[in-house]
Specification:
By secondary structure, this protein is mostly helical. Helices cover about 65% and strands about 5% of the residues. α5 links the parallel β3 and β4.
Length: about 700
């Protein structure tokens, strides 16, 4: 079946052609212990697909998962670190490793295709990938052909000749004569599933010649005929239970009992599997099975025709079983099929944090889209849509969904994650004043993501004591929730707080710890660790390391949705490069200024930019110790309260019923007394002096 140079074996043929049987038979004949991944439609999500792929290989290589699973990508763009870890581990294996991906046509995601191509390119020669699919995958097959790395098995290769079909039909107990076998092969065109189903009916026929003569020729007629023949040959209870369980992608005894209201599900399943080779075992313990795809299709069509009134309730029971047995994704699917969209929306909201943290954004988007109008009427899904928009850098959409969530749920009853979303959006917009205002409305944090949002707001707002007090809370909650994103972010903000407090050594240790957490969890190339590199740059005594780390922070932060993180990475890099008299320092500082000028209120980062610019001579020198030069008048304090807003000076004049020139005069006086040169820096200086 395989040449030593072959890296990929493609088995591409229509449903019921015997693809899986062929691959399983070859593995058994050769004694090859393969990792087998049975794909389904939900594996369209890259994070989910790679999780299942690693779990499949880990069953073959028990020591693989601890080394590789932490790098499972949180988004489509993060697959390469996982591939590198996986291929490095495969290189250490003495025995050949085979990975089978069955039903690859159900995946249909170019990001996953790209990751598979990387795996094939980087894996050692001892690794072989077998892809079974009803359609040719969108992998670059021509490149594999040119290199001699591809072996292809097509539908023509899988057609049964009469001598081969004889063994298949004899196995079913039909024992047809040679001319009957030839006729069946001709009329099924050697189609394996048609022969199997024909053999089932032929074994019960009293007139084999009449059966063969009546057997129709093309696939659709074969399906229509055998639907009636196969189901009609079953006792009513078995037939009814087959139709009831056709709604399930995978079957187990307890699940069947929950759906059908029976108490013998496991025994019934084993009995049916022993009598019907179209019921396929998924594990070695005989616990989980699935129907052959063709049989499942036939059963579902018949179920729609004969038990349609039961289907909604069956899906409802399946959803409840999956909900209470930890498979939320399957539960949501069944609730959607049952028409219980409200239950589906509740469960999507309950499960959203786990899916968001694991990067399964595509899964969430697809589930919410299927809710229809309810998606915009449910506070949970509106909030999740806000996070999805934020994570994909669509700030306008994120604000829309936040406003929608708040319309659906009055402020006094807002969920903590809704408030956290508001803080995140403000931070992503560069509006520290708004972030602090939102943070004030937050109750004592009970979720790690909520706590992190408060840390961000207080840190960039210069309230370092409040931010530092929340660090152990976020760390504890992240550990309880197994939230690696928050766990890796906590030491970064610990480091920023330490730098602002003049504790350089503490900052360095915190940043190194953040990078260790990221590396252990496959997040070393994530935008989340950008500022850890920035801190390393600011605290390193080695000029080459300082420059490299600072620029790495800029590189990673360039992809973040959080404009303040991007601004901090740029200004800290400009600071490092300026101190070391690097020729690129002015260019990086200019980029930092451009980013900060887009922020309504950049908080302490605005001050930082001014300080670096002053050292470079592009601004007048600022006081070494910012403080209040002179007390503000009552009228100036009234004007100051409006400065964190986005009101123009003319708007403020209208609010206070004074002229525009009066406001301009007050602002100049406020800037002078605070020792600053612009409105944004004045806001932060006022915070530092307890005036805001």
């Amino acid at each position: 079946m395989q040449d030593p140079a072959v890296r990929v074996v493609l088995v591409s043929a229509p449903a019921g052609s015997g693809k899986s049987t062929l691959v399983a038979g070859w593995l058994e004949t050769t004694g090859t212990a393969a990792a087998w991944l049975q794909a389904d439609g939900a594996d369209h999500d890259p994070a989910r697909f790679w999780s299942h792929a690693i779990a499949a290989v880990a069953r073959r290589l028990p020591d693989l998962e601890p080394a590789v699973a932490p790098a499972i990508p949180g988004s489509a763009a993060d697959a390469r670190p996982l591939i590198e870890r996986l291929t490095n581990h495969l290189t250490t294996q003495a025995e050949p490793v085979v990975l089978v991906i069955d039903d690859y046509h159900l995946i249909a995601n170019p990001d996953i295709d790209h990751g598979i191509e990387q795996l094939v390119d980087l894996a050692p020669p001892s690794f072989t990938l077998i892809v079974s699919s009803r359609l040719d995958p969108t992998l670059r097959l021509s490149r594999l052909r040119v290199r001699g790395h591809l072996a292809e098995i097509r539908a023509d290769d899988l057609r049964f000749e009469p001598q081969e079909a004889a063994g298949l039909l004899d196995h079913r107990g039909a024992a047809p004569l040679p001319h009957q076998i030839a006729a069946l092969c001709e009329r099924t065109e050697g189609w394996a599933a048609g022969l199997v189903l024909a053999g089932i009916s032929l074994a019960d026929s009293t007139d084999a010649d009449a059966f063969v003569a009546a057997f129709q020729g093309d696939d659709r007629l074969v399906v229509d005929y055998l639907t009636e023949e196969f189901l009609a040959g079953l006792v009513p209870d078995d037939r009814h239970r087959l139709l009831q369980t056709s709604i399930l992608e995978r079957l187990s005894g307890p699940l069947i009992d929950a759906v059908c209201g029976t108490n013998d599900g496991a025994g019934w399943l084993r009995r049916m599997a022993a009598a019907n080779q179209l019921l396929i075992g998924l594990d070695r313990t005989g616990t989980w099975f699935r129907y052959h795809h063709l049989l499942a299709d036939l059963l579902r069509v018949e179920a729609e025709n004969s038990i349609q009134a039961e289907l909604a309730q069956l899906h409802r029971r399946a959803g409840a079983w999956h909900r209470h047995n930890g498979t939320a994704l399957a539960a949501v699917e069944h609730y959607l099929h049952s028409g219980d969209h409200a239950d589906a929306a509740d469960l999507i909201w309950d499960d959203a944090t786990e899916l968001l943290n694991s990067g399964q954004l595509a899964t969430l988007q697809r589930q919410i889209a299927r809710l229809g109008p309810l998606a915009d009427q449910h506070v949970g899904t509106a909030t999740v849509n806000g996070y999805l928009a934020l994570f994909t850098r669509r700030l306008g959409d994120a604000r829309h969904y936040l406003d929608l969530a708040r319309t659906l749920e009055p402020n006094k009853n807002q969920t903590r994650l809704t408030i956290a979303l508001a803080v995140y959006i403000a931070i992503a917009s560069g509006d520290v004043a708004r972030a602090l205002e939102e943070a004030q409305a937050s109750e004592h944090p009970t979720e790690s993501a909520q706590t992190l949002s408060l840390i961000w707001a207080h840190t960039w707002g210069g309230d370092l004591d409040a931010a530092e007090a929340l660090l152990p809370v976020a760390e504890r909650l992240a550990d309880q929730e197994h939230n690696t994103l928050v766990a890796g972010s906590v030491p970064i903000y610990e480091g920023i707080i330490a730098i602002e407090s003049g504790r350089t050594a503490d900052a360095r240790r915190a940043a190194e710890r953040a990078l260790e957490i990221a590396e252990a969890n496959g997040l070393a190339d994530s935008t989340n660790v950008a500022l850890a590199h920035s801190i390393i740059g600011l605290t390193s005594d080695d000029p080459a390391q300082a420059i490299a780390a600072a620029m790495r922070g800029v590189e990673l932060a360039d992809e973040t949705a959080l404009i303040l993180s991007r601004g901090y990475a740029l200004v800290s890099a400009a600071d490092v490069l300026s101190r070391l008299q690097h020729p690129d320092s002015d260019a990086i500082l200019g980029q930092a200024r451009t980013v900060i000028d887009r922020c309504p209120d950049p908080g302490i980062i605005g001050q930082y930019v001014n300080q670096v610019e002053a050292r470079r001579g592009t601004l007048p020198a600022l006081p070494e110790t910012p403080g209040l030069v002179e007390r503000l008048t009552d009228r100036e304090q009234a004007v100051l309260r409006y400065l964190p807003s986005q009101l123009t000076q003319r708007d403020i004049a209208n609010e206070l019923y004074v002229s525009l020139n009066t406001i301009r005069t007050h602002c100049k006086s406020i800037y002078r007394k605070l020792g600053v040169g612009d409105r944004k820096t004045a806001v932060q200086a006022a915070r530092d002096n307890g005036l805001l």
